[in-house]
Each structure stands twice: as structure tokens, then as C-alpha cells.
Amino acid sequence: MSASPVSSTPILRTVLVWSGSVTAALAVVGAIVGYLVAGVDGLWSALAGVVIAAVFLGITAASILIANRWFGDALYVPIFFGIVLGGWLLKFVVFLIALFVLRDQPWIVGPVFFVALVASVLASLVIDVVVLMRMRVPVVDVELPTDPEAGERTDDSGAGA
Questions:
Q1: Segment 46-77, tens digit of pLDDT
Q2: Positive or negative CA dihedral for 63, 69, 72, 73?
Q3: Residue 59: in which H helix or E strand, if any?
Q4: Sign of the C-alpha dihedral computed for residues 10, 12, 15 and 17 taken in this order
Q5: Contact call for residues 27 and 45 (beta carbons, < 8 A)
Q6: What is the per-residue pLDDT for 1?
Q7: Contacts (Cβ under 8 Å, ≥6 apart) of 54
Q8: How far apart are CA 50 and CA 144, in angstroms?
Q9: 3-state DSSP of 87-150
Q10: Which residues of 121-130 are buried (b: 16+ CB within 10 A; e: fewer)?
Q11: How far is CA 7 from CA 13, 60, 61, 72, 94, in A?
Q12: 11-29 as b/e: b if 16+ CB within 10 A
């Protein structure tokens, strides 16, 4: 399979790999701390918070990676926005379902769940910043016109002709 010409593809792949590693580490730390703070219920609450954050944060990156497969197609832009918008709608529906399912569960320890969720989101934001700061992606890929004094400038506006 050839590399995608879309500059965001390697960045998003790196984000997903790093996020998976950090999610695993947060799950272990959260489970231990949750267990020490609130017993078995705290362990499950921390794991639920970490997993929910990982799923929600991964859906956006994954949907963009999937949409980038259509780069170069005449319908790339509508396909891209359709897939990404569909991912956001999926996250919204899953969030509502998770909220309704988890709110009355006796094993959810609210503060442990909240701290695990926030820690996971903050870790994801740090990963995004670090990856984006390290990646070298060209901002603009254009060819500028030559010096007008050299006489090789093409000017379609009619000014200067």
C-alpha cells in the first residue's frame, strides 16, 4: 500500500499509536489508584473513564484517516466531511448512551471516574501537541512568481502588461 499524499495521515497515525500506549499506561495506573481509593468499584470506575476517553478521542483521528483514503477522488471533499461529521454524530450518540447506562450504575465512583476521564483527555491533548510540534509538514506548497524585473513573471490580471 502506498503512502497517502495527505500530510495529516502520518500525524494522525502517530497520534493513534502514542494514544494507545498512553491509554494502556493510564488504564494500569488508574486501576491501581482507583482500587486504592475506592476498592473494586474504584478500579472499574477508573477503567471506564479511561476507555470512554480513548474511544471518543480515537474516533475523530480514525475517521479522518479513513476519509483520507479517498484523497484525489472527485468527491473527496464531500466524502471527507461526511465521514468526519458521521464520526462526530457517532460520538454524540455513544456519549448519550454511555451517560444513560453509566449514571445509575452502583459500581461507578463519580470522583474516580471523573479524574480518570479528565486525566485521559489531558494526556491526549499533550500527545496532540507533542506530535504536532515534532512533525515537519509544509504549510504551503506553491511556486511563487519570479521577480518582475527579470521579465519571467506571468500576470493574468492584466496589470503591468
A1: 999 999 999 888 888 888 889 988 888 889 89
A2: negative
A3: helix 8-67
A4: negative
A5: no
A6: 45
A7: 19, 20, 23, 120
A8: 48
A9: HHHHHHHHHHHHHHHHCCCCCCCHHHHHHHHHHHHHHHHHHHHHHHHHCCCCCCCCCCCCCHHH
A10: bebbeebbee
A11: 11, 16, 13, 13, 29
A12: bbebbbebbeebbeebbee
Do 33 and 46 form a contact (C-beta atoms < 8 A)?
Answer: yes
Q: What grid cell was written down for 24? A: 494502556
Cell of 102: 453509566
Do 120 and 54 contact (CB within 8 A), yes or no? yes
Instruction: Summarize pLDDT for 5-48 with one digit per residue, the tens.
Output: 677 788 888 888 988 999 999 999 999 999 999 999 999 999 99
Tell me the Ramachandran region of residue 135: left when phi exceeds 0, alpha when psi lies from -120 to 50, beta otherwise. Answer: beta
**What pTM was estimated for this model as a whole?**
0.72
